[in-house]
């Protein structure tokens, strides 16, 4: 019995259960009459979908956030976004700090799992830094957006809008209050919105470990392999995708065609950033060309970086696999990045994460082709990848989902935020190493 109890309290099980309970609590709050403008509350399935999307910082919505919810309902969503983005264990640690409690070894192990850290060394100090970074970045972003929105609406409303969108985008959620599912398309060529929001998304997506190392660089004069890979991969993906979007959408009369040169550059930058994994947009997604949509699907699948507020298989996973492929092509045995040999466990885990992600996306796409029969295949694939990558971009399918389709997307968003591996570890028995090794086998590949 003791072993079963211990197994039940493994970090992966606690993380899965914790996120599930937060989602359920949020869903119940959104069903209250005071949560919606019509005074009836959301139907439970729609409330569950919205709460899952907010807690898993996705941004897919079945009802319009700006026109459906009251201030109470919007604040519930905002709270779910903040807790979901930073992680409930991070908030639990904050409350422990405020109450003067000591952080136990068990809680440190949970934080290690939640923040995807290799060790528990310095984990409490990192949590403190996470809150400082979050307050400063969301605060500065909120002020800048409030000043811009004040030109279009009353000051009080502008401040609320500014901080709501700052928190939503820093946590890579993508919820907006503009109404009619417009997201930020009204600011497609606005330099303030089109620069501030993507910078919030980038900072939220690179991960707190990277931010902490960059912050300490003046004292340490060193960056870890993790930080180097994250920064370089993020930079290359951003530049390459921005160039491709410009090339593919330059003359599209429904998107960039009518824009000035600065508008095209700003919109391409925004749309290159947002699949990593925010979900807000300044270009209307259904109007994009098919090559651009396929590029966005790829970017959504890769996603953000470990220890961040974003989803996807992560930039480090993508780069590790590229390194492994390049090593095989060159006939090298070791995978080397920045003059560091990557251990085989990391390569195997990267392959497992990628294949698990592909399996989830393929399975969800196949199921949705049945539940949402008659819908365009690219639209379904786009929606499935967006849910798995916790992105929130949509070609318009989400509000039209059947009840079964909504449940499929809810489960996909949950798996994407918690991670397929974490869920697998949570539902299996305690992992133990094999007591023996099998003989080596050979077979032909390729």
From TrEMBL:
It is found in: Cell membrane. InterPro entries: Cat_transpt, TrkH. The keyword Glycosyltransferase does not apply. Keywords: Cell membrane, Ion transport, Membrane, Potassium, Potassium transport, Transmembrane, Transmembrane helix, Transport. The chain crosses the membrane at residues 75-99, 130-151, 192-215, 227-248, 293-326, 347-371, 408-427. It comes from Geobacillus icigianus. It is a multi-pass membrane protein. This is Ktr system potassium uptake protein B. Pfam families: TrkH (PF02386).
């Amino acid at each position: 019995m003791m072993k079963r109890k211990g197994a039940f309290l493994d970090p992966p099980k606690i993380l899965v259960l914790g996120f599930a309970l937060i989602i359920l609590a949020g869903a119940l709050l959104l069903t209250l009459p005071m949560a919606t403008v019509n005074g009836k509350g959301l139907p439970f399935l729609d409330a569950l979908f919205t709460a899952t999307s907010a807690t898993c910082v996705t941004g897919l919505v079945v009802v319009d956030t700006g026109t459906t919810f009251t201030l109470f309902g919007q604040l519930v969503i905002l709270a779910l976004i903040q807790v979901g983005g930073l992680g409930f264990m991070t908030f639990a640690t904050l409350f422990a700090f405020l109450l003067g409690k000591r952080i136990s070894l068990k809680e440190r192990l949970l934080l290690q799992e939640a923040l995807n850290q290799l060790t528990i060394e310095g984990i409490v100090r990192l949590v403190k830094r996470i809150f400082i970074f979050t307050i400063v970045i969301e605060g500065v972003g909120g002020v800048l957006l409030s000043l811009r929105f004040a030109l279009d609406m009353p000051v009080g409303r502008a401040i609320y809008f500014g901080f709501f969108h700052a928190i939503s985008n820093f946590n890579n959620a993508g919820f907006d209050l503009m109404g009619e599912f417009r997201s930020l398309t009204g600011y497609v060529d606005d330099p303030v919105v089109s620069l501030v929001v993507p910078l919030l998304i980038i900072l939220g997506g690179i991960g707190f470990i990277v931010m902490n190392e960059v912050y300490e660089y003046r004292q340490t004069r060193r960056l870890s392999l993790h930080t180097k890979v994250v920064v370089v991969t993020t930079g290359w993906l951003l530049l390459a995708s921005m160039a491709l979007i410009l090339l593919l959408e330059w003359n599209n009369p429904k998107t960039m065609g009518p824009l000035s040169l600065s508008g095209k550059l700003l919109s391409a930058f925004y749309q290159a950033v947002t699949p990593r994994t925010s979900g807000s947009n300044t270009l209307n997604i259904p109007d994009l060309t098919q090559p651009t949509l396929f590029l966005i699907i790829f970017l959504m699948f890769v996603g953000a970086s470990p220890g961040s507020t974003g989803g996807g298989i992560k930039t480090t996973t993508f780069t590790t696999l590229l390194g492994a492929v390049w090593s095989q092509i060159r006939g090298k045995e070791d995978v080397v990045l920045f003059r560091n040999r990557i251990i085989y466990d990391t390569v195997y885990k990267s392959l497992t994460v990628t294949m698990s992600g592909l399996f989830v996306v393929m399975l969800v796409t196949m199921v949705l082709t049945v539940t949402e029969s008659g819908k365009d295949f690219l639209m379904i694939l786009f929606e499935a990848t967006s849910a798995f990558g916790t992105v929130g971009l949509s070609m318009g399918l989400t509000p039209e989902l059947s009840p079964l389709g909504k449940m499929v997307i809810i489960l996909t968003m949950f798996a994407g935020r918690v991670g397929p591996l974490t869920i697998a570890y949570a539902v299996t028995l305690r992992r133990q190493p094999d007591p023996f090794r099998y003989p080596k086998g050979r077979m032909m590949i390729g």
